Input
Amino acid sequence: MKIKVCGLKGTVNIDDVAGLAPDFMGFICYDRSPRFIADLVPDVLKDVHEAIIKTGVFVNETEENVRKAIDRFGFDAIQLHGNESPTFCAEFKGEVIVIKAFGVDDGFDFSQLIRYKNVVDYFMFDTKTDKHGGSGQTFNWKILDRYTLKVPFFLSGGLSLDNLADIKQIQHPAFYAVDLNSRFETAPGLKDINRLNEAFELLR
Output
């Protein structure tokens, strides 16, 4: 089970979370999010161990601005959390790891993912809200049984110490990683290291 911790923005907190050795760390490059990295100094990310995949999170951003952020912060992966097209994803495939996120609810149509299967490395299934992630809400995980593609996926949306044990009941062959965010915070962008450490012990 791979672990991604998302929504980091404070220098000290970033160092502390990196010390837990997650597989992915996410940094939100969307200025409407309370976890927006804003004026974070790029050197902070360059000091993160190279084994951790540094992921820039974008929402309906231009290709030019995504590329600028990749160059500035040294992102190894991008997570596209808006209405990005397969063509947009394809522009980055092979250059960085591409994660395409989708908001999921009971009526979600998994057939729309077919167009993306060759232009992304991973999907992310998050709870459908108007906030583009970080809502702290879960969705009905049984819906994942309707996903039949082989592209591995991340599970996101309201994951917490209260429900992480239940994750191990998900036996889907493409289930690759969990995404930990708002339910492990003391404030937006500030992660609770003790809670994260407990989560890591449960999952690994």
